[in-house]
Amino acid sequence: MSNDLLPIGRFARLCRLSVKQLRHYDDLGLLAPAWIDPASGYRYYRPDQARDALSIGLLRALDVPLPVVARVLSGDAAQALKEARDRIEDDLDRRRRGLRLLDRVLAEGLPEARVTIVREPARRVRVAREAATPSTIPGATSACVRRVLAGGVPQGALIGLFPLDMTDEFDVRVALEAPDGDDLLPGGPFAVATHTGPYDQIPLTVYGVLAWIGDHGHAPGGPVREVYLDDPAATDPGRLRTQVMIRLEDA
């Protein structure tokens, strides 16, 4: 044992970490002690390990996940921290959308939807898809719209397709009605309501349609369809109209 080694308690105070945290980081392989007493199991650290320990504490205080911290310590700092920042920005966007929804619920109460039942024909479509999480739906949808419209001016309806059951990861799809499309959107009976307002508030109308379906004893089937009736480039966000359609599996 070298005389310049610090016992875990003194090292923890130097780095503003707890002994429990240091033990946890050792267990994860993130910051191993310089020496462990084979008799007592007591951990000792070199003073020059303080910079890594302080870096871990700083990054964790900034909500940087431990796997990203490990990449930073291994030398991949720039890319790892950029990805962590992007994730935090996505989370902030999601929370801002949630606040806007909450403000509307506070002002108007839980949403009620004016629902009608329509029998939808099967439609030939071109489809673009993108992997998404609940926080990245807007970006994934925009990417799908760009790809599906790459062929020129749309002649048919533009339809967003979203899973009924939101998992950690899923595919977002956007379909463009086209006679030469390779995919077929099945027809059948649908509960339909029109949402008026920004796209990020469509979940309120989805809630209203699902509540109506439950109240009337039906069984919903996915995916949830959003038929975009207006051009967002030429329409005020508060006046955008979107048809929300959910298939009635039992009808």
TrEMBL record:
Q: Which Pfam families match?
A: GyrI-like, MerR
Alphabetically ordered keywords of this record: DNA-binding
Segments forming domain HTH merR-type: 5-75
Under PROSITE patterns, the record lists:
HTH_MERR_1, HTH_MERR_2
> Which positions carry the signal peptide feature in this UniProt record?
none
Spell out the SMART domains in the cross-references: AraC_E_bind, HTH_MERR
By what name is this protein known?
GyrI-like domain-containing protein
Native organism: Actinomadura graeca
